[in-house]
Prior knowledge:
The protein has 258 residues and is of the alpha/beta class.
Amino acid sequence: LKTYESILVERRGRVGLITLNRPQALNALNRQIMLDVTDAVAVFDADDSIGAMVITGSAKAFAAGADIKEMQPLGYVDIFKSDKFGPWDILTRTRKPIIAAVAGFALGGGCELAMMCDFILAADTAKFGQPEIKLGVTPGMGGTQRFTHAVGKAKAMEMCLTGRMMDAAEAERAGLVARIVEADKLLDDAIATAQTIASMSMPVAMMVKECINAAMNMPLNEGLRFEKRVFHSTFALADQKEGMQAFVDKRKADFKNI
Ligand code: CAA
C-alpha cells in the first residue's frame, strides 16, 4: 500500500480502511486530502482482494468541512477554473461499496463526503450539518442535493438555511444514517459490516449498489425495469448457482466472485 500525506490507509482482511488524518484542522478537506482520498479509493476499487471500503475520521471529527483557510483568498475565476471539488466525483463512480464511519463533526464538505459514501454508520457522538450559509456560501459538494434526497425537503431547507447541527439520534430518525453505534465500537462495527459485504458475491454487491443508486436518478418504472434486467443477469453467475446450492445444502455460501 502507498503512504499518503493526509490519510492513513490499511487493509483489514478484504476491507480497505481510509482514515482522514489532519487532526490539527479537524480533518478539514483541503486539496491534499482530496487527492489522497480519491487516489486511495481508486486503488482499492481496482484491487480484486478488496471487497468494500470504510472511510473514517477521528473521535472528534469525521471532517469539519472543506478547508475554509484554503478557500478564503479565492475569487470566482480561481474556484471555477480549478473545478474546486470536482475530483471528489470519483467516489460516486466507485463500484465497490463504501461505508462512512462518522464520529464527531461531519460538517459542510465533511457531511457531503459522508453522503457520497454508500451509507453512514454514526457514532453516538456524531454531529451533522451544512453550515456553509454562515460563511456566506452555499454547499458545493452535494449538500443541497444529497441531503434533500436523504432527509426530505423540510429538514434539508431548515438545516441548510440555518446552518444548525443535528445529533446522531436526529440523523437516524431523519434517515441520514443507517445505524447508530457506541463511539468506542464504531470502527470495529464498520469494519465488521464492510467485511460482511465483502463476503458476498462481489459482482452482486456491485449490482445492488448500482440498482439502489439508479433509484435516486430514475423514475420508478424505469428503475424497476432496470432492477429486473440486473436480477435476470445474476443467473449467469456461478455465484448464483453456489448461493442457492448452499441454501439447499444448509451450508454457508462460498462465493468466487464470478
Ligand atoms: N477549515 C479550516 N480549518 C478548520 C475547519 C475548516 N472547515 N474547521 C476547523 N478548522 C481548524 C480551526 O481553524 C482550528 O485551527 P487553529 O487551531 O489553527 O485555530 C482547528 O481546526 C480546531 O478547530 P476549533 O478550534 O474551531 O475547534 P472547536 O472544537 O472549537 O470547534 C467546530 C469545532 C464547531 C467544528 C469549528 O471548528 C467549526 O465551526 N468549523 C468550521 C465548520 C464549517 O463551517 N464547515 C463548512 C466549511 S465550508 C464547506 O464545507 C463548503 C462545501 O460545501 C464543500
